[in-house]
Amino acid sequence: MTEPNDARVGLYIDFDNIVISRYQQLHGRNAFQRDGIRDFDKANPDADRAIAAKLAAATVDFNAIIDFAASFGTLVVNRAYADWSVPINASYQRQLMSRAVDLTQLFTTTTRGTKNGADIRLAVDVVEDLFQLPDLTHVIIVAGDSDYIALAQKSKRLGRFVVGIGVAGSTSTSLAAACDEFEDYDSLPGIDKSAAAAASAERPRASKKAMEAADAGTDAVADAAPTARKLATVPMFSHTEDAQLDEPEADDIDPQTVATELLLRALQIGHAKGDADEWLNTGTIKNQMRRMNPSFNEKPLGFRSFTDFLSSRSDLAELKEDGPQRLIRLRPEADSKR
């Protein structure tokens, strides 16, 4: 990877994708359409105060996104794609313009808004920049649609380091796998995690309501299910109500278990390249885990550092220090149990 001082970064924001995804992460699937947010004007004296409060809670902090993008190097391309005449989008203009974001206007030509137009325009611009700016080292795509898989793959083939940023619940697992690195919006430095935590706390209650409703044979299951699903990592091809999803939802997947299995596979791969009892560098193992699953990040799991994460898996692996290096190896008994 290019050194940060030499890196030149292109940031491309599918604005509608991230704003809609955040709202639906906190307020339920299809909530953006159901609450009429696209045409909602909070400045209107007759605006529904309850909807205004929900909208305020789902405000996206684009400063945090831009700051994270800048950590990779100098931002030489900084664009956001949307119909900026829409009230909800217009409310972000001052924040974005203060960070020198190029607001690319997309005009609404269908009843479904500018969703597909943003995908196509963003992809065309990225490919054009890849050829016109040979010194562009990083491509950062702020979106979760699987529509961008081909774009990520193409950018990697052309030698760029691809970073994705998406919202939990509206991120395609295939897109995350296509990137060199993928970050959840809530894991970015500076993001207030209280809203997402509150939404997450609702999941067990919603799931219990759904099960009780099923036992009682009522229709309440339909009401409870959207809330129970809203933090699942599932692909989002479109933000329309009739969107078809062809990947399984992940309601019951424990992220701690997923991380443990990822660590196990990384250690097994590391040992397969050398002696079974060989000590491996922890940095090498983390890089391997990120290559296998670019969305891996120990901080959303509750750990301040990767070392803390490894220490919590002491039944799986043992650690030691060798001067400035931290080393790790898989416990033989742990490997044999799997």
Automatic annotation (TrEMBL):
Gene3D superfamilies: 5'-nuclease (3.40.50.1010), LOTUS domain-like (3.30.420.610). InterPro entries: LOTUS-like, NYN, OST-HTH/LOTUS_dom. Pfam families: NYN (PF01936), OST-HTH (PF12872). One of its GO terms (molecular function) is RNA nuclease activity. Residues 255-333 form the HTH OST-type domain. It comes from the Bacteria. PROSITE patterns: HTH_OST. This is NYN domain-containing protein. It comes from Cryobacterium tepidiphilum.
